[in-house]
Fold each of these.
Amino acid sequence: MIAARLHGREDLRIEDVAEPEPGPGEVKIAVAHNGLCGTDLHEYFDGPMACTNEPHPLTGGVLPQIMGHEFAGVVTAVGDNVDAVTVGDRVTVEPLYRCGHCDACLHGMPQLCDFVTTHGICSDGGGLAQYTVVPSWMVRPLPASMSLAQAALVEPMAVAYNGVLRAGVGPSQSALVLGAGPIGIGVTLGLRAVGVEQILVAEPAAARRGAIEALGVEHVLDPAAVDVAEEVRRRNGGRGVDAVLDCAGAAATFSVAPAVLRPRGRYVILAFVMIDVQFAPWLLARGEFELTGSLGYGPGVFTEVIDLIANGAFPTAGWVEHVEFDQVPHVMEDLHAGRRMKVLVDVPE
């Protein structure tokens, strides 16, 4: 079968590899679509970091690694002791491996496991291949109304929706989203899904502003053209917002949040970037702000997002595109340069 394997930094090769078969408790999937995301870009341009030549303690994964952790497809075979799905079922995969015995796992936070990794980041196989094999407990059957392309977006939209849940906002409240890339769009749609009435988005790139405006978001700000803090308060009746959700991770965003939050508002960081920032801790005390993070998604979030997508909460027009499998190395360059939004790779049969 064909697969896209990461051998090292900026060394992604489309190769012929052996087709995997499921063992006991495992499911084999013919992949239809696989999304490319920021984690893939970090591993490709800045790593490899998550997967090296040392076997991962949970998965045994080593380089070269078949990439891809946002995917959906059709079950083609199951191993012994699998009864949750059968051959022909349409599925997506909740791809997190966890140890089950560290403090985070024991307290219901497997996404924060000491050894957490992801299928397609450091594992035996990944979604950028014609077939992949996963443990049966990762597999999520799809409702009839959901397409396989929509299902390949469940994983990143679960990341976004987890941030919304961490913000703790709902009807009659307000939020500012920093950044309108795929996760920023997902956060915005997630805020809408939980009933947040006043949603504002700040994004410097014109194409991204246009994409999120096309989804019906009224308050989209260009930080190069307006003072974001002043404009947010002007559009929000003179008061601060209940939450800021940072999907950009730029150094400048750390000065924006304290300036726009209402007292005891919450600043949620979703962006996963390796930068040092200057931050005055007294600002947190002065407004009694809460500074928190959101990583991956907690138990139950993935399946909740399947239902939300099936019910139309995450429309894809204008910000999701499809590419052919052999374009993957070129598309990685485009994504890194900001020339594309969200990309789904169509995997050949």
Note: Residues 154-167 form the longest helix (14 residues).
Amino acid sequence: MQEKIYLTIEGMHCESCEKIIGIELAGVPGIKNSSIHAQSGTAEIEADATVPDEAIINAITAAGYRAAVVRRDPVTAAQETTALPASIEQKTVSPSAPLRIRLQSIRSGEGTIDLQGNPRFSGTVTERQYGEFEIPEGRKDMQTVVNDMIGSAKLKNLFGIFSSAPVLTAVSSGGSAASLPVEESAASSEEAKRKEEHIQLSLFGMHCASCAGLIERGLKKVPGVLSANVNFAAEKARVVFDTSRTDQEALIGAVEKAGYRASIATAGNSDAEREQRERGMKEYWKKFWWGFGLSVPMLYFMLLDFFPFLPARAALLPYIGIVSLVLTTPVQFIMGAGFYKGMWS
């Protein structure tokens, strides 16, 4: 049985927040799809009734947000599969021909598709089944077998097997099971060897969306990174990588190479992250006031060209060049060092 779970989420700012939460929720076993709304701060999730509230809230907390479950409602069959009666045709062929059975199952859907967030189909699915039997002329024994098959549950079992290729086991209404052989390809074998890991990084030192873009591009260049998503507003990065090709230290190194700082984000270190951000903000304010103080004389030098009556004009004009060099050097290469690091990376 499935349920529709309604939540309120605090801390979302933009579509990137929606994507990060959606990716975290997709990793929770039993969750079928989710719809996240940053503007309203709400979310709707369709999941198995066995999925606990704690698993959902922990996933959202791991993404860097706060959530609360409002209610859970049972899901009525919004997507119902209707199997129409099978259309059976019997043909008589040459006596020397073998008995041939051709089964076909066609599924068609009618409804609406939601392409926002995780794609979701809501509507009805109709399954049309068609069977064709070629019976050799004069073979009454084969005719009896075919008639017995059509009149029993055996034909339904066959349709269940041949119309559901991804399903490894088909179970009949009587409880018997038929297993299908599985042929493992080289691609699936390689996929099995690959171990994916999801990691969330707390980022420090970003100033704008361009900083987030620099970090995201730097993370994607690391061999073994399958996907990277940086949220500037939340100062978080979510990375999916192949543990056989890279590790957490390499990801943190890629962020530092881009001119920023990063650490592993966990649900328990939110207070430490907040304190570190506060220290970072104080550092930025300190740089701002130092830069402002060193830039005020430059503004005064500019005004000397337009207002000759300003005091000390004659005394300052011979030394404006050297004084400007002394004042602007720390602004460019100390206060603005982070910008040059980002450009170089």
Note: The longest helix spans residues 270-303.
Amino acid sequence: MSETPGTLRLQKSTLLDHNIPTATIYTAINTVELKTIESASAKNGVFAKRDITIDFEGDRESGRNFLLSFNVDQPGDGPLRVLLNGRLIYERPVRERSPAPIPLALDYLKDGKNELVFSVGDAGWSFWRSNTYYLHNIMVSADVIDASASIAAQTFTIKEEEIGMFESAQLQFVPECDIKKAGRLVVHLNSQTVRNADNTTQEVPNVLYSGFPDCGVLFKTDVAREQLRVGENRVLFASQGGQYVIDRIKLVVRQREQEYPTYYFNLPREMYDTLDAGQGQLRVTMTFTDYRNQKTGEVVLNGFVQSFATGDYAWQAVIDPGILTPGPNTIMVAPHTDRLDIAELKIELV
């Protein structure tokens, strides 16, 4: 019998852990001045009428708590009217120099350009008088969500043999967060190419999870073989609110039990009787491709184990006739080193 086992690799464990660095993600809320006007005046009289018009940009998705604030030189008796995109939001006399900020309702706002118009009511029966408000420090502000730090990506490497021996995998992590403030957490792993109806293709992320995990509790989610790739893999964490410290991240890959090749050889009855009578020997020889490094392992013949350790180019041993059987016999080689390269496994009568 002569066979070429090739490269045999030692499987130290069926579980492989890929530890991934901690990731911190958060969204911040900052008060931003959307528009400021140093001073302006609104007037309503018999011979003159002047309104104040202010434009500003708004984004209802990233902004909240929109406010209009201003000061006046002197309190007045006439009503000051304020329209937001044509809808009345304020109409009253300004009795104090620094009135309370006026909320700008989200329902009245637009994404993009918005318009504020300040006007003054008429003077009534005193037609010879004019109502005038001198406004200073006019400001439109909003609390704007800063999502620049809401996404974090980490990478890890998968070897080709891990994919070949893949049985299952889990992504594990502990989300440290404040349950009252934490928003939705989304986890992506790599991406996949999807073909559209018009025959074009696009890259779509593999969503492993989207939801609200328990803060401080180990979280596990399954990973399919198709979602992993040989070489660099990228896992992405994204928060839609609050802060998360994603700790103790690791991908646990479970592999199939390593099965080393088993070879069969037939021992004719006449040859078996000859060996049993001590009139010959059956010898096993392994020839290696590496003659410099130490090679260790075991040869399993019909279930009987013989260990070997050598730094030579080849290893030989005489097979005990007592473990042989007439007819079919089996032999297997299992490595004890990380890698064992066998050019030839031969059994011969000597």
Note: The mean pLDDT is 91.
